[in-house]
Every structure is written in structure tokens, then in C-alpha cells.
Amino acid sequence: MEPRISLITLGVNDLTESIGFYQQLGLPRYDFDSDAVAFFDLQGSWLGLYPKRALGEDAGVEFGRADKSPFTLAHNLSSREAVDRVMAEALSAGATLIKPPQETFWGGYSGYFSDPDGFLWELAHVPHFWIGPEENKRL
């Protein structure tokens, strides 16, 4: 796994209110054709806003539980094979498999693991746009 976080996704209660808040802070919103999720460019990584319930459903967890925080850290990779390889590395290091890598409804490929403290990581290949260092871009 490369030493970077591509995306921090917050599970929010009110998407419209959260979008307005981060826009008022001056964060540049990525022009993305969706009313279900929002992205902001953080100059090297991204901030994602996703309804809390939908984020939990995507990860296959219930965020109402005390051991689950309503956010995920994402590590985006250049291919599906890389997602599978890094997932195997994480599991070998002691991670807990939450959701095996699989095709997504949004046209990508992703899976989730949690670290020893229960923090969720998403490993993803996003064929629509690259999130990460330019030298690793292979769409």
C-alpha cells in the first residue's frame, strides 16, 4: 500500500447542508453529475460527502454501532488487480475484511477493510477519474 490517503468520505446527516458548509469554507467542489454524493478537491486528496445511511450500506456496516465511525479513508489504485493485491496485503497485516472487492453500482471496483481499531478503509479503482499522484495515473 502506498503511503497516501486519496479520499476521506464523511457520512453526513444532511448532504445539502454539508455541501453548503464546505463551499462556504471555500473548498472547491468537483463538478460531478450526482445529487447523491459530493467531492471537494483538497490539493492532493479529496473530501467526499455521502449520506451516512448510504455510506454504511456501501461499506456493509451500521454506523449506529459504537465501534463504527461515520467516515471512511480511501486508497485509490490504478487497477482492479491492484485493489485485490493491496487488500491481500492489508489482510496479511492483520486487517479485518469488511466487504470483499467487487464491482460497484457506480462503475468502479472496491472493497473495505478495517484496521485493528475499527477504522474503515476503502480500496478502490475509479475508472471515471483518477485520485492520486499523477505519476501513478493509468486510466
Topology:
Elements: E1 7-12, H1 15-24, E2 38-41, E3 46-51, H2 52-59, E4 71-76, H3 80-92, E5 96-103, E6 109-114, E7 120-125
What does this structure look like?
The chain has helices at residues 15-24, 52-59, 80-92, and strands at residues 7-12, 38-41, 46-51, 71-76, 96-103, 109-114, 120-125. The mean pLDDT is 84. The protein has a single domain (7-136), classed as 2,3-Dihydroxybiphenyl 1,2-Dioxygenase, domain 1, CATH 3.10.180. The longest helix is centred in the middle third of the chain and has 13 residues, at 80-92. The two termini are 19 Å apart. A hairpin with a 5-residue loop joins β6 and β7. Helix content is 22%, strand content 30%. The protein is globular. The protein contains three helices and seven strands. The chain has a seven-stranded mixed beta sheet with strand order 2-3-1-4-7-6-5. With 139 residues, it is of the alpha/beta class.
Descriptive key words:
139 residues; alpha/beta; 2,3-Dihydroxybiphenyl 1,2-Dioxygenase, domain 1; seven-stranded mixed beta sheet; 3 helices; Glyas_Bleomycin-R_OHBP_Dase; Glyoxalase; VOC_core; Glyas_Fos-R_dOase_dom
- What coarse outline follows from CA principal-axis ratios? globular
The total tally of domains equals 1
Element order: H for helix, E for strand:
EHEEHEHEEE
Low-confidence stretches: none
Proportion in β-strands: 25-35%
CATH topology: 2,3-Dihydroxybiphenyl 1,2-Dioxygenase, domain 1
Number of strands: 7
Give the full name of the CATH homologous superfamily.
Answer: 2,3-Dihydroxybiphenyl 1,2-Dioxygenase, domain 1
C-alpha termini separation:
19 Å
Instruction: Indicate the CATH class.
Output: Alpha Beta
The whole-number mean of residue pLDDT values reads 84
